[in-house]
Amino acid sequence: MEKSQLELILINISGQDHPGVTSALSEILAKYDAGILDIGQADIHHTLSLGILIRTTADVSGNIMKELLFKASELNVNIRFTPVSIQEYEEWVGRQGKNRWIITLLGRRLTARQIANVTTVLAEQGMNIDAIQRLTGRMPLGDEEQPKSKSCVEMSVRGTPKDVHAMQEQFMKLSQEDEFDISMQEDTLYRRCRRLICFDMDSTLIETEVIDELAMRAGVGDKVKAITERAMRGEIDFCESFRERVALLEGLDESVMREIAENLPVTEGVERMMQVLKRAGYKTAILSGGFTYFGNYLKQKYGFDYVYANELEIVDGKLTGRHLGDIVDGRRKAELLRLIAQVENVNIAQTIAVGDGANDLPMLSTAGLGIAFHAKPKVKANAEQSISTIGLDGVLYFLGFKDSFIN
Length: 407
Known about the structure:
The protein is α/β, with parallel strands linked by helices. The chain is 40% helix and 28% strand.
């Protein structure tokens, strides 16, 4: 008896979704013992899009398609059949698992223009979009204009960019021109199992520079702020500027630190982000060029696992204008990130660093994922990922969390 010829058929179903569609269609495939080579389904506002690639034989394929057509008519959905050659399938198999990227678009609201510009860059680079999903929840009409609104979509992209650095530069330019954030990450095993995340404190976890707050209480605000801004722009050495600023705080009463800590302007999204990261089992750390007093306050309030910052010397209840121990500068932050990763038995590729200033660049470049947060221009220009449009919980979307999982 002659063996029937192998056939591969791509089945596309679309239409109004309702319970039982996938079950009814797959029952027909099961009746003829069809093999499922690939399957994918999406539902957008109750509109179904289902694709199934089956393996069958020529002697039964006609019956399969006929019964599927009848069932689709009964279910009031559209169905289309496309033959796939063995060669096409084998080429597809050869490409799977290779050169995959995750592109994340994030902002207060996303527009068709932003998506069009990003997808145009992908097309020019020879990249193909396999899937798009919305990570933020459905937004009620009118809410997109609210000041704290968030919108995020994630694209799964396949292919080898013609010029990955040029593509990254194009994305950064678009994000600045169109006021949204974009993340481009290689879709590796490590991207899916990050375990340690380290944060700068001043102007990252909190919306101020604590040393500026202390300086204002000491009456030297303008002098300290000028030094701070020069240091954060990378114009002067951090350690030198740190000593100069701390010296100006001599004589300030210790009680001022408690007052400032209790009124810290915490960055939008910190509480939500920390709740999710702790629930998901992440280890968290504050690595700050600021002061341990305020880092420990945030640790107690939000549950950070580690705090490394600078210790101010206090004698008889007053600041002496000196510090204790080594200064936590940019180099030290990167060292601490590696040390904590080693202690927690975490591969450096599984680490994340988030910061805004020039002294954060070493740890941003050391971590598996470095995110510049509302950063200075120099920092944003040197970081591969950045968030400038929403709060710190935007980090969650770069890690692939969906609102439906975390709210």
